[in-house]
Amino acid sequence: MLVTFCGVRGSTPAPGARFARYGGNTSCVAVSHSAGAHDAPPVLLLDAGTGLANVTGLLGGEPFAGTLLLTHLHWDHSLGLPFFRAGDRDDARVTLLMPDQEDGTGAEELLSGVMSPPFFPITPAELRGDWRFGMISPGQFKAEGFTIEAREIPHKGGRTFGYRVSDGRSTVAYITDHCPTAYGPGPDGLGEYHPDAVALAEGADLLVHDAQLLAGELPAEAAFGHAAAEYAVRLAIRAGARRLALFHHKPSRTDAELDDVARRFAAAEIPVTVAAEGMTIEL
Ligand SMILES: [Zn+2]
Ligand SMILES: [Zn+2]
């Protein structure tokens, strides 16, 4: 499969020259089936941050036909929805799935909370094409030729899932917006290496993981619901993942600072990549 980073920022977009190389759009990852060809269209999208607009460019003028999986509904994972031109056209087919809610609120109704007047001119129902909205529970399901496992991940303010996506040959684990310190300090103060995180990442060819913070920032900022890059590296190694992409960068983290992060982990036991907008990893 091909994994393309369409938006790698957390929290809010980061425009400007100091963020140009890693990119300023918020979370969105496109997954395609691949037989070695780099032009296979993406059929599975993970999150709908402002990076979702970049998926249109991957489709070469074609409509999107596939599934859009949200980890949760925070702005940096949902506000790209109305700007997805390849999905907002009469010939598009989009199945949008999100974690089910304890109070039973439906998917379309939930999304309308941020996407409807007076906050925005249109509602989800007004997107053009064949849009279906649904909820998922933790467990396994199939979509677009992938087997997907969903598990609940501690974050802050809203139910959040991590996903493990496999095509039968390779596997990518996507754990963004993860607050492992919510379960305690763990063995090294970075948070618990809890069973759900380990199971999602176990033996994955690629782990894409929250790296909003650095270890030194945890005391002041862990309460916002994110992990440190150092935790992501240790989780990947513990779980036997073969490669790690640090993702969901802090909006204030400049290109130069992200270069420093890359250097810091250059000698890690497994390859550690600092995800950048436009980067494709073939598994
Ligand atoms: Zn986020
Ligand atoms: Zn979040």
Q: Which strand-content bin applies to the residues? A: 25-35%
Which strand order do you get reading across the main beta sheet?
Answer: 6-5-4-3-2-1-14
Annotation field: number of helices: 7
Please tell me what the overall shape is: globular
Structural class: alpha/beta
Structure description:
The protein has 283 residues and is of the alpha/beta class. 17% of the residues lie in helices and 26% in strands. The chain is built from seven helices and 14 strands. A seven-stranded mixed β-sheet has the order 6-5-4-3-2-1-14. α4 links the parallel β10 and β11. The protein starts with a strand and ends with a strand. The model has no long low-confidence stretch (mean pLDDT 96). The site of one zinc ion (ZN) has 4 residues, from loops. One zinc ion binds next to α2.
Which helices and strands occur, and which strands form pairs?
Blueprint: E1 2-7, E2 28-32, E3 42-46, H1 53-58, E4 65-69, H2 75-78, E5 93-99, H3 107-112, E6 130-136, E7 139-143, E8 146-152, E9 161-166, E10 171-175, H4 195-201, E11 206-210, H5 218-221, H6 229-239, E12 244-247, H7 255-264, E13 272-274, E14 280-282
Helix pairs in contact: 4-6
The structure holds zinc ion (ZN) (2 copies).
One zinc ion is lined by residues 10, 27, 74, 76-77, 177, 248.
A few lines on this structure:
This protein has 283 residues and is α/β, with parallel strands linked by helices. The chain contains seven helices and 14 strands.
Structure characteristics:
7 helices, 283 residues, 14 strands, 26% strand, alpha/beta, seven-stranded mixed sheet, 17% helix, binds zinc ion
